[in-house]
């Protein structure tokens, strides 16, 4: 795979309609903006008019003229992934699949009603990416405890996340030794 690659091309499952992910194996000094502009250009939009902005909560979004685009950014260990949703909000998270975590982390991030309803192979790091992508989608980030989010498996790649009255669709998959989770409107 080249240093810069479309996650959509290599993902083992189709991503939600209107969602595009671009990854780069080199964390660039200039940050995510050049990668986002490349992603915008690949979708046939004018990258020179693209502006990256932030809501009051710090959640990023993109603007081209009078059009607003959902944007999310995640990085870990030299990998940068930028997500663009032409149809609404988006949240993304990526973590190395072999990341070592404290054994009690799962207790801190599990909703009280989840323990019996999730498959045993839903590992802690995968659950972390799902819940962090959900919080990024909502614009709260880690200011909200992950154990407030309840997950329900739809199939091996798709999960529904519930928090209070909110319902968020998650696509979660493993790619290049990383777990990647994408949160969108159901």
Give a structural overview:
There is one protein chain. This protein is of the alpha+beta class and 186 residues long. The chain folds into 2 domains: 4-89, no CATH class; 95-184, no CATH class. Helix content is 18%, strand content 37%. It has helices at residues 7-10, 33-42, 105-109, 124-138; strands spanning 4-6, 19-24, 50-54, 60-64, 67-76, 79-85, 91-96, 150-153, 158-163, 166-175, 178-184. The strands form 2 sheets. A 6-stranded antiparallel β-sheet has the order 1-2-6-5-4-3. A 5-stranded antiparallel β-sheet has the order 7-11-10-9-8, with helices on one face. The longest helix has 15 residues, at 124-138. It is globular and about 45 Å long. The two termini are 31 Å apart.
Give the structure's gist in a few sentences:
The chain has 186 residues and is α+β, with helices and mostly antiparallel strands. It has helices spanning 7-10, 33-42, 105-109, 124-138; strands spanning 4-6, 19-24, 50-54, 60-64, 67-76, 79-85, 91-96, 150-153, 158-163, 166-175, 178-184. The protein has two domains: 4-89, no CATH class; 95-184, no CATH class.
